Amino acid sequence: MDVSVAMGTYQGAAYLAEQLASIAAQTRLPGELVVSDDGSADDTAAIVRRFAADAPFPVRLEISSQNVGVRENFARAVGLCRGRCIVLADQDDVWMPDRIRILAQALAGDPHAGFAFSDAELVDSARRPLGRRLWESIRFGRHEQRRVARARPFDVLLRHNVVTGATMAFRAEYRDLVLPIPAGWVHDGWFALLISAVARCVAIPEPLVEYRQHSGQQIGARRRTLREDYLRVKARTAADFQAIAEAYAAARSRLLGSGRALGDGRTIARLDGKIEHFRAKARMRTRRAWRLPLVLRELAACHYLRYSTGWRSLAQDLFL
């Protein structure tokens, strides 16, 4: 498979050179690197241009005239790729030398797999190991790993996103399905959910990325304290839960309008269940007298198990 690397950058000068060097050091080089920069004011563009001058593959740099945000920036990078396999890249990580080879082989080895993703080593800003891996941090445990291996990734992703964009590659044939990315979604969660509805995926337990954790990143895998988790959940409003419901409604519309055969006849019904579950959560915040009946209804329908984080979500709805 010919491989394109799609990278989104913004104010990335601090760590970008290391990431680019790790891509150039791959045992299997990509056919191209596409960098979409979101109007950085630092040396990001200059670093990319210096790298492109001697890179062992073509490098394309596109710079936004105004800041459009992570979602639109990655969408543009993906849209410009020419390869049949698109490997996503963050600006601040470091790749293991075999990352492209392993991801490309995983997709080539299963013609029914639409995307592949891996675990990652968590490191600090100086690349010192933090003593844990990404899957552990996002609670992607063995039970859910087995469900993904048994061709049930969509069910897992309906509960929570376990696919981090920095670890993901997907077939370019699904680009028309996932682009454009609607508001309310981060690119990785959107890509993984939609592709998992029409294809299998390959989860690779081997860490293929040093996933750098630092204060300047927008999305990371830092563990929250119990107090931080409590305050975050307590601050959620009815509008927040309604927005989540609308985001999944957008996924439903995209799948129905794609003309693609869904991998499971229950896909739309499960999406409907997710949407209704979060609409119920919104009603719990606006009709407090109806909270207990609504919670009991969602519990009886097994929606906390299928669409939320189980007993944690149940306790939050009851007491927060």
Alpha plus pi helix count = 15
| Count of beta strands | 9
Q: CATH fold name of the largest domain, please?
A: Spore Coat Polysaccharide Biosynthesis Protein SpsA, Chain A
Largest sheet features: 9 strands, mixed
> Which CATH architecture of the largest domain?
Alpha-Beta Complex
Note poorly predicted spans: none
Overall outline: globular
Overall pLDDT = 94
Instruction: Give the termini distance in whole angstroms.
Output: 50 Å
Portion in beta strands: 15-25%
Summing up helix and strand content along with how strands pair, one would put the structural category as alpha/beta
Query: What radius of gyration results from the CA coordinates?
Result: 20 Å
* H and E order: EHEHEHEEHEEHHHEHHEHHHHHH
The name of the CATH superfamily of the largest domain reads: Spore Coat Polysaccharide Biosynthesis Protein SpsA, Chain A
